[in-house]
Design goal:
globular, Mago nashi protein, 136 residues, alpha+beta
Length: 136
């Protein structure tokens, strides 16, 4: 049974690094989503990263949708190199309408403002995945 009765908006894919697990984070138009972490044999510290599902309205999909509509073709987001830590450097891309962006971790304020805003929006969404759900 699919808990997401909404259309998929975008998927964020992160390669992970030596010290952090990779993940796939899918966001739906109704603000629901799921994050699934890569499991690597011998990487016991990755167990702290728990797969999670988000109910409708838990994620700010509207801000993401607005930015993606402005950009339209995420493959125009550049894939330029930037310095990365050997232990913690990852590659993070967004998939939208069948197209894939360049590495969002390398986007800076020197890039188009809408690309930088997308990076910030994605980072905010990822922060939401780490928050402990409040108990009512």
């Amino acid at each position: 049974m699919n808990m997401h009765s909404s259309k998929e908006l975008a998927t964020i894919i992160d390669t992970g690094s030596t010290n952090t697990p990779g993940f796939t984070f899918t966001i739906y138009t109704n603000g629901s989503g799921s994050i699934r972490y890569e499991q690597r044999p011998g990487r016991n510290w990755f167990r702290a990263s728990t797969d999670r599902d988000f109910a409708a309205g838990e994620l700010d999909s509207s801000s993401l949708a607005e930015l993606l509509q402005q950009i339209d073709d995420v493959s125009t987001i550049p894939d330029h190199a930037c310095p990365k830590s050997a232990s913690f450097g990852t590659i993070r891309r967004i998939l939208y309408q069948g197209k894939q962006s360049g590495d969002l971790t390398c986007i800076s304020s020197q890039d188009l403002p809408v690309f930088y805003a997308l990076k910030q929006c994605v980072n905010t969404l990822l922060t939401q995945t780490k928050e402990t759900p409040s108990s009512s």
